[in-house]
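Before surveying the methods themselves, it helps to consider a single example record, giving the amino acid sequence and backbone structure tokens:
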Amino acid sequence: NKTQEYKSLNLNSHYDNPLLVANSNINFNESTNKLNGNLNIGHAISFVNGKIGFSKPIYGSFTILDLEGFEKGRSIKINSDSQGNYLAKLKNIPIAISNLTAYTSNHLEVDNLDINIGESIENQSMTIVPRYKSGNIIKIKKSHTFLAQAKLIYLEKPLSFVVADIIDKDQVVIGQSFSDEKGEILLEGLPE
């Protein structure tokens, strides 16, 4: 009996991101001198109320993130962690967050590290409880706010430790601020 030795090489790879999933398998068999392989790519396009979202394959529920007020080329990260990992990164692509667990709280949070002073994000932190195999839309809106500093003076003396109402052009109170010992107040989050 003569034993023959066959040599083969197998390479498998997997790539997973919020927009697609790819798997490849390459096999080389020295005895037959043949190279075989395959590549599988999974992607999904979802529609809800006229909005479109792109994602990896959807096996459960999903939500389309509808961005408003963000500049072209601006990156927005969803559910990022201290190691730089994130669930999704939006950059001019309407993305759908797929595979949300039905009838369970799914938490999504927009990373605010990349926003500038004077910008704020509505729906920065949200909890979604989707129905079984359903889709919904969440609007994430960036708005600009102003920051101002003022000094409260009465009879040429600073007004220390008082509450000041912030009033808009229609005389509606839109906020309050508290002065320091010098009578200075900081007005944050003023609308445009």
Notes: The longest strand covers residues 135-151. The mean pLDDT is 80. DSSP finds no helices and 18 strands in the chain.
